[in-house]
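Internal tracking record. Fields below are filled automatically when a chain is submitted to the structure queue. Please do not edit lines marked as system-generated. If the sequence contains nonstandard residues, flag them in the REMARKS field before resubmitting.
Queue: standard
Priority: normal
Entity type: single polypeptide chain
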Amino acid sequence: MRMAIIGAGAGGLAAAYDLRRAGHEVIVFEAAEHVGGLAAGFRTPRWDWTVEQYYHHWFASDRHILGLISELGWSDKVLFPWPMTAVYHEGRFFPLDGPLSRLFPGRTWLDRMPGAGPLSRGLWLFRFPGLTWADKARYALVALYLLLAPSWKPLERHTVHAWLQRWMGQRCYETLWEPLLVGKFGPHYREVNMAWFWARVKARTPRLGTFEGGFQVFMDAFAHRLRAMGVDIRLNTSVRRITIKPEGGLALELQGGEMAFDHCLTTTSPALLARMAPQLPAEYLSQLLSLKSMGAVVMILALRQRLSEQGVYWHNLPKSAGFPFLALVEHTNFLPPEHFGGDAIVYCGDYLDPDHEYFSLTHDELLKRFLPTLTRFNPQFKPDWVKESWLFRTPYAQPVPPLHHSRAIPDLKTPLSGLWLASMSQVYPWDRGTNFAVEVARRAARRILEEGLTEQSLSDVH
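SYSTEM-GENERATED OUTPUT FOLLOWS
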């Protein structure tokens, strides 16, 4: 059977791996000049490692991507540092997560203890001055409840906004969680349901993972393995249209002509599938187009020296305090700057509606907006610290899950015979990322092999 996959991100490559191992011809189409999707990276001549265009990391609980890496024989190349996360409160940054050895200097053995992560989070929380002791106790009890809750389904009928205020309390919600929600979902933050929050609590770990050399090194190595297996990966190749052939199968319209396939799995956004496959029934098209999502704008800076003297990796920022972006992520407080020629690598990132002005402002205009804010992280910062900067934007980065969102998730199998969709809008209640991109794409590949090929065989008999 001949299979097409649209999108050479982690999900598309994982599906190609499974379908090719099952003995099928697989062609992957990627519009960009490189594999990797939203986890793609780049490198300058002075760097040994690549830097992701949109900050990425894995969690220790990410069994789907880590399992795939194990299958490929590369587990020894996965690294799990333990960086520091901080929250802004009354003009200062306070750590809310980080190694126990930062609390007890010189005692690095504490970081290797069983249960070090939850213990560390508890200790940093109780040092945080923005909450009362009663607030912290409520926080801990609610977090424990969510960790132990076996199912997310009862929670999707509540919004995060209402549920956290009720159970964690107004001060805790407004200090820690409302800024995160506003930053991540903008004007839609009051719509987001609690199942999404439950999944964040369940899946996230204090140690964050990366691949030796950067995510792009992993993606390139994966693509090389697939090509050696016989997978055809075509870069700089956009699929314009997908149509049903009268004699059966699918036709993919490309710039250079048309190609026929038995099955096509698209790993792009639902909205892009709707544009590519106008023959989809109106009801299904409406379902695809009703799924809300946020875009992402990320400015990456290479600085001459470290920005956060505290060594903080991730700064959560309240926009109500005048910050022009959601998060400042100092990559070289996660990985050694020696991998990047001594540069301090800093991300200024935000999730925004695709019609936000940040998607139309020029690189220089955004740089002028962002740079003055950096003195709030280090009063000594000067614009001449910036050696180089890069801007990346995508209109599809963060799905928005409203109440009862499970009812709105489209099936992996579309109504057009042979056409399948595996997107980050379908990993609900889990959050987007390479781990669940791999999970949903491999699940789609299994269904193609189980259901799609069975249907094809029955069709051939008739």
